[in-house]
Amino acid sequence: MPKTYLDYAATTPCDPKVTRAMSVFLKKDFGNPSSIHNFGQKASMAIGGARQSVAEFLGCESEEIVFTGSATEADNLAIFGTVKASKITKPHIITSQIEHPAVLESCRELEKQGAEITYLPVNKDGVVEIAELKKALRPNTLLVSIIYANNEVGTIQPIAEIGELIGHAMSSGHRMSKIYFHTDAVQAANFLDCDVKKLGVDLLTLSAHKIYGPKGIGALYVKKGTPIAPVIYGGGHERGLRSGTENVAGIVGLGQAIKEIQNPKLKIQNIKIRQFRDKLIKTILKIIPGSRLNGSLTQRLANNVNISFDGAEGEAIIVMLDQKGIAASTGSACSSGSLEPSHVLLAMGLSEEQAHGSLRLTLGKLTTQQDIEKVFKVLPTVIQRLRKISGYHS
Amino acid sequence: MEQPYYTKKILERFIHPRNLGKIKDADGIGDTQNLRCGDLMNLYIKVAKQDGREIIKDAKFETIGCGHAIAISDMICDLVKGKTFEEAQKVGFETIVKEIGPIPPVKMHCAKLAQAALKAAIDDYLKKSKK
Ligand code: FES
Prior knowledge:
A: 2 domains; three-stranded antiparallel sheet; B: Sufe protein. Chain: A; NIF_FeS_clus_asmbl_NifU_N (chain B); iron ion binding (chain B)
């Protein structure tokens, strides 16, 4: 039975060009980039090349890129690092209720340590309101961290507008510090413009494995002049911001993956993905009564479908779909194993039951028409079956 | 999660539950909500007299719950048939695990959901039969 993978927001397969580029640095050119000999220098050069590729994608200088062990680590560095480097004794951070746990839990930890945190609400479409953010600014606001595109419902946040607002805020009123602006662009990178100047961000997080690169490698853009302290100490790699021998193959993989997502062919692929997404949303809502789309239809990543079904529980849907050869997800794969209903859906105003019955389908460049049709064939029977188990009548 | 999240036996019960649905003229109905995940369960029992004792003759369930909740409820329904109330309520976690295989620790409360629903159904019967 052919397997249909519709969980690209959880992770993506490596592009063949990526694995090819990487394997050289696992085998032949395995040197430690800190070594002065030829083996080391080859590895060091390769890292430089990858750094350049990432910088080009973000429209910044290569010295502004820090490679990390994951996007979670990059988020942690952005948040803990700026707070640590700040002179404010009780800094204020603004974030949203729909952040990735990497940001949310970092903020919660800082809150325990005495920082003030504002968790901005979102509207029912799952989008942060600029006016709310404006109201939340305080004299001691140090950092704003808002996700570029949400991982569960794919809603796109107005990052450039927020960047602009922060710019204005800084020139008016009394401030204890410059306000630094961080965005987690992990899900956005495949589809949205990540030019840091256009976005007006000081810090931006990327992940390789969401863009057809390997797992275990992330990057943080740190704008020149942004005070930031490391969270990991050691040999002073990555300009002292991330000690630890570089994951050379991973970095090379990230560099190659970044090159690939800028390939003009991807634009065409993304149009196809968007068409599939639209078809999925329209058809599922039509053929399955008691279903509703979560999150804005327009401010939404081209590959994200998130639908709630009355009378069916999310995990049960996933397991039954898996039995029929479709891999999907309930909310975020990162927090599977926790049973609490999605914090993102709750923030959007869904009831606990609605939030617990959601299905996320995320598409990617290998998704085919057959995959989509399989969903149309299988999903209605799965929902019907689970509704029979739950005694639900539409 | 190095153990399979869903074992073969659990999957089988989940996909083909044997004790699914309502009992139309049920003697006791228990409904419970899982406080951790918000999921819901209804359990129906039919009571009969045997050798002068009251036993559970039939048990069925409906749930909006995860696959584990479905499989475990189905199992419990099987396990309590023919048992007195007291015996039925002794059907504990170990018995279930022995029958169905290991359940991930985060899913313990899904098993409890079924046990709570069974207790509620018995209580419901006792309340009704007193009147
Ligand atoms: S997760 Fe709700 S019943 Fe198992």
